[in-house]
Amino acid sequence: MHEPSSKNKNSSKHSSKEKTKDSLIKRKSLLSRILPEWAQRLLDPKAKLWALLIGVSLFCAFLLAPRSFQVYSLTIGEPSPETILSPITFQVIDEAATNKNQEEVLRSVLPVYDLDEEMVDDVQARIANAFNFMKNYLAAEAENKAREEDKAKENKPSQENKSSPAKVFQPMDDNALRSRFETLLGADVSPASFAALKAAGFNARVQRDLQSLVIPLLLKGVVLSRELLLRDGKQGILIRSKSKEKLEPLKDVSSLYDLKEAMEKINEEERDTSDDTSLTEAINKIATDLINVNLTFNREKTAALRQEALASVKPVYFQVVKGEPIIREGEPVNEAHIRKLDGLNKANPAYSRYGIVAGLGLLLILLIRLSLYFSESYLDRTKRASEDLVLLSVLLVGTIIIMKIFVHISTSVSASFNNVNPQSSFFAAPVATSAMLASLMIDPRLAFLFAVLTSLVASLAVEGDVYLFVFFFLACVVGLHGVSKVSDRTAILRAGLVVGLVNMIAVLGVKLALGQLQRSQDVYEIGLGFLGGVICGPITLGLAPLLERLGYTTNIKLLEIANLNHPLLKQMAIEAPGTYHHSMLVGNLAEAAAEAIGANPLLARVGALYHDIGKIAKTSKPTYFVENQMRGINPHDRLEPSMSALILVSHVKNGVEKAKEYGLGATIIDIIQQHHGTGLIKFFYYKAVEKTDKSRLPVAEEKYRYPGPLPNSKEAALVMLADVAEAACRTLPDPTPARIQKKVHGLIMNLFGEGQLDQSNLTLKDIQSITKSYVRALQGVLHSRIDYPEESNSQDMNDGDHLRLASDRTSNGLDPVPAEGGTNITRLGLR
Prior knowledge:
Blueprint: H1 2-34, H2 37-41, H3 45-64, E1 84-85, E2 90-93, H4 95-108, E3 112-115, H5 117-154, H6 159-163, H7 174-185, H8 191-199, H9 204-220, E4 222-223, H10 226-232, E5 237-241, E6 244-250, E7 257-258, H11 259-268, H12 277-290, E8 295-297, H13 299-312, E9 317-320, E10 325-327, H14 335-346, H15 352-378, H16 385-416, H17 432-441, H18 444-461, H19 466-482, H20 490-514, H21 521-534, H22 536-547, H23 555-561, H24 567-575, H25 577-597, H26 601-610, H27 641-661, H28 666-674, H29 682-695, H30 714-729, H31 737-754, H32 764-781, H33 793-798, H34 800-810, H35 826-830
């Protein structure tokens, strides 16, 4: 009675699929005729991916960008008409603190003085020229006088003088000489001083005394006024000279003289008491006339240095956080209120929102695309890129919405309680949920990258600082690690509890880093952090089944379908008990090996349980597979090899359809589809070759191969190897440990040599560990028993293991099947 109904149902489903397929083809054809060529390119999967990426990024940026708000204009003294809460977090310049910093910087700038070094050389040169002139003149005068005296004595010119007439001496009176001396010296010289110098003969010692009085003072520098020097240069001055490019600081200005002090210094200078008093006075008088100011204040350079120092002073800001009351209703407006309102108005120019949306959108596009690039390049998730993008987009938007809700909560709390920090409630936000779901659905490594993105958008949504970002990131990392290897539902709740504990420590760290651990409110905030972590567990547990509809198979889903009461497993146990028993053993083998190489044991076991589910399909009867054949009847004996191969191959396709029908998930479907790879059904292939040898017609090898694809995950490869190893070892007539090891090793290396494991990411070290694990497990399963004596027949009848072993070796018809090349004949076609 049920058979016709089932057939009608299958026929109806097939008809519905065909109609849907035809409808899609017609729609595609219609679009190709209507849309231009550039628009048709948008229908390409890559274009759709980019469109989704850009759309989600801009939408998230729109949510994150602060909204426009009212501009307030109040005057000092008037009562505020309403309570104004800050709609955003903004900064206001603290003018008092900024001015104080500027004054300190200005005080640290030393005034610049220019040192005229040329004056020293000029004075030295003038003294030397003037004294040389006078010494030369006096010498010429003495020579002329001597010559005149000689002429007077001889009363006639000598022959020598006739042949070389002497230079004509031009006598000068004292006034003319003094005037010429003053001109060369560049100083006033009184007649008395000139007479004293002339009396001394303008000798070198007088010249040296004059220089020793003037030059040292000029080398140190002489300023115009000490009072002005001390007013601006209490901490020192900067001396700039032409000979040196750098400004040289002079901290102690007490060594400098002003002009008056320099003159007094000259007059106080003691010299040899044996000197003529009139000569000493003459030297001092000339020295005081030669001394002059050569260290002058450079106003322009000093102003430039001060301006440069002022430019380096950054304004001091204080922050007004979002939700903080700026002024309350009825409160008189003061200057502090006006500064905050001005800062609020400046933080909200008319064009800012568009720029913020564009900037945030570009950053999100880059971050999300780089995450997908990492996933495609290093996690081999190119085929799942669209699903991953949809999932990450949902989680990202969900995180922003949650944070926006917490912003409203924060605003309400701030308006109601004056002493509560508006940002406290952000510690209770379950941001780690997104990273936990990403780890559960996709991969912990991609979830780690996503944790950065999630923490960033969560912080931006509440305009938080870097400490809030670090807090969220720590919670995300702990959460994603906690759910990376879930073996039962309570593991997710435990992960949430751990996140809560870490949140408490993180809140404590943030408060210490900010220097705010001084109030009783800190206990309240630490409690909020614990709450925010704990609730991540139940939320993740509740959302996981909903998100699995996007095509993901989580460990929670695997735990559900691993239940032996699942309809498919129960059907298999009834209709194909041999396959059911084989799947159980393959599951145990794959699970143990997965633990040994760090793969997902649960996925390997569940994938193994369902890998042969196609053998109970209507189109592939279980009795066509050797493990389900009873009484030695093999229906393949009546079929052509090609037909037998077709039946065997069809169980893979039927298994995929069964898995889709029961919603086992894409991961399990992949394992079912890949558990044979592109292996050759050698038994029937060689049987076909043997039959065609007589007719000499070639046999197409492709007809006797499974369609693939090759296993592209470690778990799928483990199921393939366990499937082959379990079945092959059952053919061993005497399964000693050495034979089991040789058989398993040979089978695995054959598959490795054929390239069936090329896409599985298994390493040679993994293969070695898998071999050891399979051998150890199969030795336990295929161990031999000691035959009981004849008189204990009743005990034999109750020994299920002994009876099963005997039955497996005889009733399944394995013994008559010849082995070929060390490979499993069961796998070659009779199962």
